[in-house]
Amino acid sequence: ARTLRQGPLASSAVQELLRAHFVSSWSLTAELQGYAASEADRATKEMAAACLNEYKFPVQIVCLLPNATVVDSICANDLVAVDDVDEVELEGFTDPIEMAYHRFLSSCVTKARTQHFFEAS
């Protein structure tokens, strides 16, 4: 089975989008639980709690604003379960998972701007 790292995260289009609009990181559930329960700064606690609230096994991709507002999230299993698509539908991407992840990220940028009135500085 392919991983996100071998697929969409290896895509130059996805990497470009991540660099331009996101702080990309990953955390284990146990780490998030520790942050949420700790005496860490409030922002860290709120972000950890927001991620835990969204979590679905095995991997959840969560887009947060700096104030811990969840813009959107998707379970990695749902992302990689994209059905085969016609080559015309790939819109220049090499595989459907890459395209789906890029669409998810682009949608997060749009939602952050239009629904949450967030513009990165």
UniProtKB/TrEMBL annotation:
Protein's GO biological process: calcium ion homeostasis
Gene Ontology annotations for the cellular component aspect, listed alphabetically: endoplasmic reticulum membrane
PANTHER family with a match to the protein in the record: SELENOPROTEIN N
Protein name: Uncharacterized protein
Organism: Rhipicephalus appendiculatus (Brown ear tick)
